[in-house]
Amino acid sequence: MFQLSIAYLQKRLMANGDFYVEGHKIVLLNHEENHLYISGIVRPMDIGPNNSVNSSYLADVRLEFTGRGVLSERQSPGWLARIFD
Predict the structure, then answer these.
(1) Which of 28, 30, 43, 85 is most deeply packed, by most CB within 10 A?
(2) Rounded (5°) CA angle 25-28-30
(3) Is 40 exposed, middle or buried (0-12, 13-18, 19+ CB in 10 A)?
(4) Phi-psi region of 17 (alpha: psi -120 to 50; beta: other; left: phi over 0)
């Protein structure tokens, strides 16, 4: 099992008292720089005593995982292939 902690920022207080939060983490893995973005809505009652939130308590979650490096470059077509496409 893989666990990762991400710091989040409260971006907006919703009309019903819930929070819209966003977080970002950079992970270096196999010489790749991977960016993980997560956002969602969390209820105040789901925020733990240490100010943490389990991802299973987020609603309307948006998750984006992007990367840069040797592996990412190899997976994209070269300039000549893009011309013929």
Answers:
(1) 43
(2) 145
(3) buried
(4) left
Per-residue pLDDT reduced to its tens digit, 73-85: 555 566 566 666 6
User: Both ends of the chain: CA-CA distance in Å?
Assistant: 40
CA–CA distance, 83 with 69 (Å, rounded to integer): 23
Torsion of CA 3, 62, 28, 1, to 10 degrees: 20
Q: Give Cα 37 to chain centroid, integer Å.
A: 2
- Give the pLDDT confidence of 10-65 residue by residue, as tens digits: 899 999 999 999 999 988 877 788 888 999 999 999 998 888 888 889 999 999 98
